[in-house]
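REQUEST
  id: r-88c1
  op: predict_structure
  target: Primosomal replication protein N
  payload:
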Amino acid sequence: MITARWVERGAVRYTPAGLPAVDLTLEHQSTTLEAGSPRRVELQLKAVALGPVVQRVQALSSDGLAHWSGFLAPTRNGKGVTMHVTQVDSAV
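RESPONSE
  id: r-88c1
  status: 200
  body:
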């Protein structure tokens, strides 16, 4: 699970099996403790949503934080990871 906002959202496309899919870039910012010292964490993460969760993703505005749940899988070229979103809820 990660708390983030989307900064890029592609158009809805359909898989060969007919499932809706949307590609995203999520942006996360937080502060955490590492070895007793505060550390600022800022990152962007590629993500994809498939099936019924696409409708929830489409309803989110880009300026609001959301809680994104899912799993990490290797990208098709094997150079990096993509988060496969299985659930998203507004962080309001």
